[in-house]
Design goal:
With 254 residues, the protein is α+β, with helices and mostly antiparallel strands. It has one domain: Porin (Beta Barrel), CATH 2.40.160. The chain has four helices and ten strands, in the order H-H-E-E-E-H-E-E-E-E-E-E-H-E. The protein has an eight-stranded antiparallel β-barrel. It has a two-stranded antiparallel ribbon with strand order 6-7. The two termini are 43 Å apart.
Length: 254
């Protein structure tokens, strides 16, 4: 990503940077169009798996008492605080204890790379300008936020004897937000103002996820999930972060 306003000495390089960025947008757009159909392709596979299981002997519900742990991978949807032109990334690890068939609790850690939408960037620029007498603002280009999440959650699963198991998960987390900027500069008319990069800040938030385990057996399952993240950081960035993601998960149970 490009950071805030660069000095006038680098203005000649902006044309090259814009051309390179256009190429990156095209490549990421192709990746976006390739990955999402793969995620959605799991749905018919899950339906077929469910049909096979329903026609055979049912699993005991006790097979999934105990613990579940597994990696998660998701992509931000182009809505709310997420950029509509470039692709972000979410990877994480989830651990859930299931003392009963229907209810569990656990912890999760994740890394998010969220590219800011135009509205979020504009809101931050207005917020920053108001704080600096209308001198400083975020520079051109894409603004990417690197976010580290640590939190806990409760999971509510629907009891079922088939291979398909829907669930709802709600949780609260601490989000460490790194603006990933290189600095700020502004022209005050007869002098130039330069500011250092913003540092990582920590905020509280919550997430709500709905998912379905589609494929698997007694010891491992794979499925789809959709998550809504809310990070309360308006005091630091002018607006709260609201990001929707669509992803896949793999759970190993014992």
């Amino acid at each position: 990503m490009r950071g805030p306003f660069a000095s006038s000495s680098v203005s000649s390089a902006r044309g090259i940077g814009l051309a390179c960025r256009a190429g990156m947008v095209t490549v990421r757009s192709h990746v976006f169009r390739s990955v999402y159909p793969c995620l959605l392709a799991l749905v018919p596979l899950g339906a077929a798996q469910a049909s096979n299981v329903l026609t055979g002997p049912a699993e005991s519900s006790k097979d999934w008492y105990g613990f579940e742990i597994g990696p998660t991978f998701s992509l931000p949807l182009p809505a709310a605080s997420a950029n509509r032109d470039e692709l972000g990334l979410d990877v994480g690890l989830s651990f859930t204890a299931m003392p009963t068939q229907r209810v569990g609790f656990g912890a999760n850690v994740a890394y998010h790379y969220w590219l800011a939408s135009a509205d979020l960037k504009q809101g931050f620029n207005e917020f920053l300008s108001a704080k600096t007498l209308n001198i400083l603002k975020l520079g051109g280009g894409t603004w990417g936020l690197q976010v580290v999440q640590f939190g806990g959650h409760f999971r509510f699963a629907a009891p079922t004897a088939s291979g398909v198991r829907p669930w709802l998960q709600v949780g609260a987390s601490a989000y460490g937000v790194d603006p990933n900027t290189t600095g700020y500069s502004g022209d005050a008319g007869f002098f130039t103002v330069t500011a250092s990069p913003l540092q990582r800040t920590y905020h509280y938030g919550y997430s709500v996820a709905v998912g379905t385990d589609l494929i698997g057996g007694r010891s491992a399952r794979m499925g789809l999930d959709a998550t809504y993240h809310f990070v309360g950081c308006s005091e630091q960035y002018g607006e709260d972060l609201q990001v929707f993601t669509l992803g896949v998960h793999v759970l190993f149970g014992w």
